[in-house]
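From the methods appendix. Each design record in this collection lists the tokenized structure first, followed by the designed amino acid sequence. Records were kept in a plain field format so they could be parsed without special tools. The example shown here is representative of the layout used throughout.

RECORD:
FOLD TOKENS (266 positions):
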């Protein structure tokens, strides 16, 4: 039997002690002090100063999502709990809770909260539209790790694969402080899925190709669901694929915009 990866390892998160002062002075030479992750500490302090660490900021985002029709209670709770500003560059933290996509490097983006919530809610719906929990899940396109953090709260086990090593390492760094034992980060070609973790109850993709790769369908359990964007006619469309005993059922939904789905690693 193939042994599954056990990431994240149990490491100590990088966090200030509870009694640490909120203000950090510059170094003696006048150069701004930096933390172990290379970020400007003064910038981080300003981010805290505008209330990004406050649950109220996330709750406002969640209220907007509920007004837009997102209704799954555990999904809304997850989005209220996971701090999106910890997954974006320090220069963009003030936009972290706006309903907008943001660049995360290497030509990739973090999807806007409404799209993330919409796709995850579709994933958590059964064939009859009823809310359900999901078991083992595959995410194609880890990116900065934000959606993986959400999924880890909603699925029994999550495998998340990223083809760009730079983003894979960024996600590892972003997620390490969260200590999520049911989340496994993989570096590899997402178009091939991850057969060692199959079968999956759910598969979600953060990039759009011209079709759903056959390995995804093969690795999906009967009764499972895929939610992914598909390119065609000069645009991308969100689709849902349900794998039934009788075969595969495909539902075409609204227009979306994602980065292209590519094969190989880089």
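DESIGN:
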């Amino acid at each position: 039997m193939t042994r599954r990866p056990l990431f994240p390892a149990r490491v100590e998160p990088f966090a200030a002690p509870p009694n640490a002062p909120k203000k950090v002075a510059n170094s003696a030479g006048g150069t701004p002090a930096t933390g172990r992750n290379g970020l400007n500490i003064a910038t981080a302090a300003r981010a805290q100063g505008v209330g990004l660490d406050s649950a109220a900021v996330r709750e406002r985002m969640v209220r907007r999502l509920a007004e837009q029709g997102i209704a799954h209670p555990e999904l809304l709770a997850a989005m209220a709990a996971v701090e999106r500003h910890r997954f974006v560059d320090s220069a963009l933290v003030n936009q972290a809770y706006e309903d907008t996509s943001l660049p995360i490097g290497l030509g990739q983006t973090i999807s806007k909260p409404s799209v993330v919530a919409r796709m995850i809610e579709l994933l958590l719906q059964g064939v009859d539209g009823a809310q359900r929990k999901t078991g083992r899940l595959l995410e194609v396109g880890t990116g900065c790790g934000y959606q993986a953090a959400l999924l880890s709260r909603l699925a029994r086990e999550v495998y998340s694969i990223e083809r760009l090593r730079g983003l894979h390492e960024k996600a590892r760094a972003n997620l390490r402080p969260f200590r999520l034992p049911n989340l496994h980060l993989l570096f590899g070609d997402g178009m091939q899925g991850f057969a060692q973790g199959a079968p999956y109850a759910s598969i979600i993709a953060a990039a759009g190709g011209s079709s759903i790769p056959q390995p995804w369908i093969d690795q999906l359990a009967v009764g499972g669901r895929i939610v992914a964007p598909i390119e065609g006619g000069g645009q991308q469309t969100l689709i849902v694929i349900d794998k039934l005993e009788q075969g595969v059922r495909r539902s075409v939904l609204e227009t979306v915009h994602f980065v292209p789905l590519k094969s190989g690693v880089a």
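APPENDIX NOTE: DSSP finds seven helices and eleven strands in the chain.
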